[in-house]
Design goal:
Length: 236
C-alpha cells in the first residue's frame, strides 16, 4: 500500500514491500527443498531456478519441483521510516543561439544523477532522457497563452508547442552515481525529479550566458525562452 504512485514513492514503498515478499517466498522454497534434499535450508543455494546443497552441487532439484500445485503465497508489508527519498542531480548545458532568429540549439547536455540503488538501470536511463525532453519543453516551448480578452489560446496540441525528436537534439550524456539511502532497507530513491527539474535552470543559464556575449546586461527571467523573446532581448 502506498499513499499514491507519485512523488518518488513507488520504488520506495512498493519496491521494498516486494523485496520483503520475495525474501519470504525464497525462504519457503528453500524450506520445502530442504525436505526433498534432506538438508538444512541454511545450507541451500538458489541460483538460475535450481536449488542445490552448498558444497555438493550434484545434490540439486529444480525450484519448480518444490512448488505445490496450488502455488505458494506470502503476505508482507512495508512501513517506511520516511515516505520518500529523493534523488539528486546536477545538469550542465552548452547551447548555441542564433541572434537573428532567436533559435536555440543544445550542443551538449550532461546529467549527473544519484537515484540510490538502481532496480533497472535501462529504465532509469529512459527516465533521465524523458525527463530531459520534458524539461527542455518547459524551458523553450511550452506556454499557456491568453489573448487580451482572457481567452485561452493554447487549448490543444495544435497551438500548444511541445518538444519533438527534432527539438531534443543532442542526446544527454548520463553520469550514474549510486549512493544508497538509509531511509529504506533496499536503499532505493526516486528517479523522476533528478532528470526533469534542473533542465529549465540549466538551459536558462546557458542561454543567458550566450546572449551576454552580444548584450552584457541580458537577463532571462521567465519561461519559456521563445525565439521571439530572445530577439526582443537582443534588440532592446
Amino acid at each position: 500500500f502506498a499513499l499514491l504512485t507519485a512523488g518518488s514513492r513507488s520504488a520506495i514503498q512498493v519496491g521494498n514491500a516486494t523485496s520483503k515478499a520475495a525474501t519470504a517466498l525464497r525462504k519457503q522454497l528453500l524450506e520445502r527443498a530442504g525436505e526433498v534434499l534432506e538438508a538444512d535450508a541454511a545450507d541451500l543455494v538458489l541460483e538460475d531456478g535450481v536449488i542445490s546443497v552448498r558444497g555438493a552441487p550434484a545434490k540439486r532439484v529444480p525450484a519448480t519441483q518444490v512448488v505445490p500445485d496450488g502455488g505458494l503465497e506470502v503476505l508482507e508489508k512495508f512501513d517506511p521510516k520516511r515516505g520518500t527519498a529523493y534523488a539528486s542531480g546536477c545538469h550542465a548545458a552548452i547551447v548555441a543561439v542564433d541572434p537573428e532568429t532567436g533559435q536555440v540549439e543544445v550542443l551538449r547536455y550532461v546529467i549527473a544523477h544519484d537515484t540510490g540503488n538502481p532496480i533497472n538501470e535501462l529504465m532509469i536511463e529512459g527516465q533521465m532522457h524523458g525527463g530531459y525532453a520534458h524539461g527542455l519543453g518547459y524551458a523553450l516551448f511550452e506556454a499557456a497563452v491568453y489573448d487580451p480578452d482572457g481567452n485561452f489560446r493554447t487549448a490543444s496540441f495544435l497551438d500548444y508547442s511541445i518538444v519533438s525528436t527534432g527539438e531534443v537534439g543532442a542526446e544527454p550524456e548520463l553520469v550514474h552515481i549510486v549512493t544508497p539511502t538509509d531511509a529504506n532497507p533496499e536503499g532505493f530513491k526516486g528517479a523522476g525529479e533528478s532528470g526533469t527539474i534542473p533542465v529549465p535552470a540549466a538551459i536558462s543559464n546557458a542561454v543567458e550566458d550566450a546572449l551576454r556575449k552580444r548584450k552584457p546586461d541580458a537577463v532571462i527571467d521567465r519561461l519559456p525562452i521563445t525565439s521571439d523573446r530572445i530577439v526582443e532581448i537582443l534588440s532592446a
